[in-house]
Design brief:
Largest sheet: 5 strands, parallel
CATH topology of the largest domain: Rossmann fold
Shape: elongated
CATH superfamily of the largest domain: P-loop containing nucleotide triphosphate hydrolases
Number of strands: 5
Mean pLDDT: 89
Number of domains: 3
Strand order of the largest sheet: 2-3-4-1-5
Order of helices and strands: HEHHEHEHEHEHHHHHHHHHHH
CATH class of the largest domain: Alpha Beta
Length: about 350
Amino acid sequence: MNYKDIINCIKKDEIKNVYLFYGEEIYLINDTLEKLKRKLVDPSLEQLNYTILDAKEISVEKIVDTCETLPFMSEKKLVYIKGLDIFKGKSKNFSEEDQNYIVDYIKKIPESATVVFYDVSSIDTRRKIVKEIKNHGDIVEFTKLNDNEFNKWIKKIFKSYGKSIEVKELSILKNNLDYLGKNASKNLLDVENEVKKVISFMGEEEKLEQDHIEKILSSSFQNNIFKLIDSVEKRNPSESIKRLNHILEQGEPILKVLTTLGNQMKNILSVKLLLDEGYTSKNIASKLNLHPFVVSKCATQSKRFSIEELRGILNTFLDVDIMIKTSKMDEKMAMEMLVMEICK
């Protein structure tokens, strides 16, 4: 079961007695808990009928007592148990006897309680406790949103603040948020903070413009790399050195800049080769596992380079990488030399 599935079940009042939540998207877990709470608990009785237990600080007896205590003036109570480290590997807080007791108790949880266990990122589906929860309730994995879901999520945030966002600006914003893709580092909590910064900067303006994004998120590393390549492909050495120095002044390590710049040049070559073979941008994005905005940017930048030039540039990257790692040249001087060489 995933986030979408459990939200649909909550809407239909198809709520189980026990759940195991796990996964990287804490934002979605919190959202699901909030929806469960609104469905099951009267706000005026929340202190009595909604309990959060930190399993690192309590006993098995406390867990059972909390579940067995009848809800006050209500049919249901919600019990959220976090930090119970018995869903994978050896537990640091609970003995084997305690774990077996909990496993046996799962099927005895009263109808008056809905219990949610939360484990941080992953679980071992072979463990007894996991199998028992699956038999008597549901296991819910909270993974990252896909591209379409992410679009809807962003639009919903803007709408909640009385703002609007168009397709072009949505694409630019996503590219600055580092959420989609295998190597993306941000989760929805991170993204929400960034989006709120942009919305706050908009002030009274209702429609998001590219200028808003650039002024708030333009310091993002990836965006600066794009700007550096833009100046390089225009064969503008003074602007390119200026862009490079701006990135380095932000405190970015030179090897990180070299690697990221090299990877982007590889992307430009790959996109150019596939375009020459007749692939569409959409097919290229899927084949290379790149965001459509990145493919679009690479396609534009590739027009200023021949395939031979790009291959030569990538060989130069390898030479500079070796020079830096073997201390044959000052790393900043090596990077500047590389940028000047590409600009020729």
